[in-house]
Design brief:
alpha+beta; Rossmann fold; Tumour Suppressor Smad4; 2 domains; 10 helices; 15 strands; 28% helix; elongated
Length: 298
């Protein structure tokens, strides 16, 4: 294999960035080619400077979480079809990495630059009044956004994925319900609503167990409850991964979806709040290539 030109992107503000050793990652990737490092001090700097930095790169290795990758994907939205990405899980949730079976150890993950296979993944576009944004893993609204607002970057860095469960416990006291409408079908008493391209969100919570990021379909899940007791049961079933069997839970697999809610709700994108509120439309925008383990069948 010829030597690669590799761009290593690090995000100092990622949830577990303190555990990353950029020099070690640089050396590990250096076994497969020439490595150039790019460390943005802010989201604005990344958006403005990475398109030029990534030009001509054979591989863009993103060290961080789902939010870091989301920033890169959106900054490079005009170059996605000609780009190949490698996820180096260094964030709080690392949910896309879970769907792609990327090793948790970032140095092991870096070896996929040489040993992995190239796989085209769907890239999803969310559109709403006032904006549009791409994502690769998931968009969730309702209860999960309440969790987002209960946790901050300091908590993420201190306890990692446990931050989502701590935030969940705090948000459960103020559980808000809404009526969701999915492509014209209404579901009452919802506490969460989401679109999945990957299988998990919130640090391994398998909301969409049958989702595949290569099938050209969006997995949509609406989670209703009728009481606080039902909410507790639902949370346990979600943690156990068998919530889709619960009465009232609705799952859809569609190429495009319009989500509405009464009252309107905010949704995150790959765990980040970007101002996305219902009504919103989601569709497959295109594809981007990622390095994945050669044995993974997606």
């Amino acid at each position: 294999m010829s030597a690669l030109r590799i761009l290593l992107v690090t995000n100092p503000s990622a949830g577990s960035s303190a555990d990353l050793d950029p020099a070690a990652l640089h050396a590990q990737l250096g076994a497969f080619g020439e490595v150039e490092s790019f460390a943005a001090s802010s989201a604005e700097e990344l958006k403005s400077e990475i398109p030029e930095a990534a030009r001509g790169a054979d591989l863009i290795a993103v060290a961080g979480g789902d939010g870091s990758l989301n920033l890169v994907i959106n900054a490079l939205r005009g170059q996605l079809e000609s780009s190949t990405f490698l996820v180096l899980p260094g964030g709080t949730g690392n949910d896309l990495a879970r769907t792609l079976a990327i090793p948790e150890d970032v140095l092991e993950a870096a070896d996929l630059a040489g040993s992995g296979r190239r796989c085209a993944l769907d890239v999803v576009e969310a559109q709403w009044d006032g904006g549009s944004h791409l994502f690769v893993n998931a968009s969730m609204g309702g209860f999960t956004v309440q969790v987002n607002k209960k946790i901050d970057e300091d908590l993420k860095k201190k306890v990692g994925p446990l931050a989502f469960w701590i935030g969940g416990a705090m948000a459960a006291k103020d559980l808000e319900r809404f009526t969701a409408t999915v492509n014209g079908e209404s579901i009452v008493d919802c506490v969460a609503l989401g679109v999945g391209n990957g299988r998990t969100c919130g640090g391994g919570v398998e909301i969409w167990p049958d989702a595949s990021p290569t099938d050209g379909l969006l997995d949509v899940c609406a989670l209703p409850v009728s009481s606080a007791l039902d909410a507790a049961k639902l949370l346990k079933r979600i943690k156990d991964g068998d919530h889709v069997e619960l009465e009232g839970v609705r799952v859809f697999q569609v190429p495009e979806v319009k989500l509405e809610a009464d009252p309107p709700i905010e949704l995150n994108l790959d765990g980040e709040l970007v101002g996305l509120c219902t009504p919103a439309t989601f569709r497959i925008k295109g594809r981007a290539h990622f390095m994945i383990p050669p044995s993974l069948n997606l």
